[in-house]
Design brief:
With 324 residues, the chain is of the alpha/beta class. The chain has helices at 3-28, 36-43, 83-89, 116-130, 142-153, 179-191, 198-207, 217-227, 232-249, 278-284, 302-305, 307-321, and strands spanning 48-53, 56-63, 68-72, 94-98, 135-140, 158-164, 263-268, 290-295.
Length: 324
């Protein structure tokens, strides 16, 4: 190789590095992320509404008619996680869901407090604002922790609970994670902590669901758009730190012993995020009657993996606990 060819190669590499560095700089500056106004126009049309509770504007959807059901999504996602269930149940139930901070289209909390306790307080404020008397709580993943704490504090409001992939112990720290996610984790921690691509969110969904599941585009798009809002990543780190401390310093699952309302546990046996077994989970509910439905084929997002089956079982439970 001649000196001239080496120089050309180095020049090309230098230009490529400059382009790459410039691209990273624009991502870090937020040039590739939308703001709240843009996303509210894109995702916040009817039936969405925005209700301010204790200074925090919450993104809320209230659909259908009949006995009231309040749905709590998991972390990283938003109220859109429940789209398939709402479509199948709104003909006979009134379904209320909201983006609990720091997720979704809800505005940043002016108190900068992101924790299970704060979300329980916001949920109670929303319940009072909407005049909800008694209702069933349906929750998944970290939404289940909010639901349990709420039901323990306000048993007079909660007719029953339906829970899936419930982390009453700290989520698994040893689960096998896709090598591509591990590599991207390394990159993001060092160079791009506040922005993640749609490819990243697709990998997360694929890594927590059974082989062959195709993540729906609406989940990928909303996860990407909401989680890349200005400051969203830092708010989520605050919430995760609070949640991690809670699991490390307290017995989070002990709250289950205070629940007296009937419980449906929709247990997803291919979910690798949850640490404890179904039997250990049921044993925690010392005062509540528990109905267990096992799904050997489901992972972390059962309401999308087979919405017909998941919602049919949920609907049977709702019909039973809402009998006159």
């Amino acid at each position: 190789m001649t000196f001239a060819s080496i120089r050309r190669a180095l020049t090309i590499i230098g230009i490529a590095l400059l382009i790459f560095g410039g691209w990273i700089a624009t991502l870090r500056a937020g040039w590739w992320s939308d703001d709240y106004a843009t996303l509210r126009a894109r995702y916040g049309g009817p039936p969405s509404q925005f209700i301010t509770i204790d200074g925090t504007e919450l993104h809320v959807r209230d659909e259908g008619s009949g006995p009231v059901v309040v749905l709590l999504h998991g972390s990283i996602v938003s109220l859109r996680e429940w789209d398939p269930v709402v479509e199948r149940l709104k003909s006979r139930y009134r379904l209320v869901r909201f983006d609990w901070p720091p997720y979704g289209l809800s505005q940043p909390d002016p108190r900068n407090e992101y924790s299970t306790a704060r979300d329980v307080a916001l949920l109670q404020g929303l319940v009072e604002h909407m005049g909800l008397d008694q209702f069933t709580l349906v929750a998944t993943s970290n939404g289940g922790n909010i639901a349990l704490e709420y039901a323990a504090q306000h048993p007079e409001r909660v007719r029953a609970l339906a829970l899936s992939v419930l982390p009453i112990e700290r989520p698994s720290q040893t689960r096998a994670v896709d090598a591509r996610i591990r590599a991207l984790d390394w990159f993001h921690q060092r160079f791009l902590p506040d922005y993640h691509s749609k490819y990243w969110f697709r990998l997360i969904l694929e890594d927590t669901t059974p082989a062959g599941f195709v993540p729906p585009q609406i989940l990928i798009d909303t996860m990407h758009d909401f989680n890349n809002l200005p400051g969203a990543a830092q708010r989520q780190r605050t919430y995760i730190a609070s949640n991690t401390k809670l699991f490390k310093t307290t017995d989070v699952g002990a709250v289950a012993s205070r629940i007296t309302a009937p419980v449906l546990l929709q247990w997803c046996e291919q979910d690798t995020v949850i640490s404890q077994s179904a039997d250990r989970t049921i044993a925690r509910f010392t005062q509540a009657p528990v109905t267990l439905v096992r799904y050997p084929q489901f992972g972390h997002f059962p309401m999308w993996e087979d919405p017909d089956l998941f919602t049919a079982d949920l609907g049977k439970f709702l019909d039973k606990v809402n009998q006159p």
